[in-house]
Design a protein that fits this description.
This protein is mainly alpha-helical and 171 residues long. It is built from eight helices and no strands. Helices cover 74% and strands 0% of the residues.
Length: 171
C-alpha cells in the first residue's frame, strides 16, 4: 500500500480501531490508550502484510487487529505484577504421603505420558523455549510440536495428550 492509501485506510477504519481497543481494554482491564496505541501499531503491520486479491482489506484488518490485541492483552495480563495482599499462602513442599501418592501416579502412567509429564515437571521452558508469559494453549501446542520434532506421529501425540489429561483429572 502507498502512503496515501494507508492514510485513507486509517481515516476509514479509525472507528474500528477505537472499538476494538475499547473492547479489549474493558475486557482485560487495560488502559484504553495503551490498547489503542497497540491497535494502531497492528494497523501499520496489517497494511504491510496485506495481499490484495486474497481477501477484502477490512476483513483482513479486523481479524489481524482483533487477534493481535487479544494476544497482546493476554500477555500483558500475565505480566502484571502480583498484588501481595491477594496472594494465597501456598504450600511448596509435599508431605511424605503426597510424595508417595505422586510417585505411584507417575509410575502407573504409560511410557509416553510419563515422558510428557517429565517435560512439564522438569521445566518446560528449557525444552520448549517458553517465555514467562506462555499460556496453557500455547504451551500445549509447543509440547505437541516438540514431540512431533522427536518423530512422534500425530495420532500418538494426540492420544498421549488425551490420556495425560484424563490421568491428571483423576488425581
Amino acid at each position: 500500500m502507498t502512503k496515501r492509501q494507508i492514510e485513507q485506510a486509517y481515516h476509514q477504519y479509525d472507528k474500528l480501531l477505537h472499538k476494538l481497543s475499547h473492547h479489549y481494554a474493558s475486557e482485560r482491564g487495560r488502559r484504553e490508550e495503551d490498547c489503542y496505541g497497540q491497535a494502531c501499531w497492528l494497523f501499520m503491520q496489517a497494511t504491510s502484510k496485506y495481499k490484495p486479491g486474497k481477501v477484502k482489506f477490512s476483513t483482513f484488518l479486523y481479524t489481524y487487529v482483533r487477534n493481535g490485541l487479544g494476544n497482546w492483552t493476554w500477555g500483558m495480563r500475565n505480566d502484571t505484577p502480583i498484588d501481595p495482599e491477594n496472594v494465597p499462602e501456598q504450600v511448596t513442599t509435599l508431605t511424605p504421603d503426597k510424595q508417595l501418592m505422586f510417585k505411584d501416579w507417575l509410575a502407573n502412567l504409560s511410557e509416553e505420558c510419563r515422558e510428557v509429564a517429565m517435560i512439564i515437571l522438569n521445566g518446560p521452558a528449557e525444552v520448549l523455549e517458553i517465555g514467562t508469559s506462555g499460556c496453557r494453549k500455547i504451551t500445549a501446542g509447543m509440547i505437541k510440536t516438540y514431540l512431533r520434532s522427536k518423530g512422534w506421529t500425530y495420532p500418538k501425540v494426540w492420544q498421549t495428550m488425551r490420556e495425560l489429561k484424563q490421568q491428571v483429572a483423576s488425581l
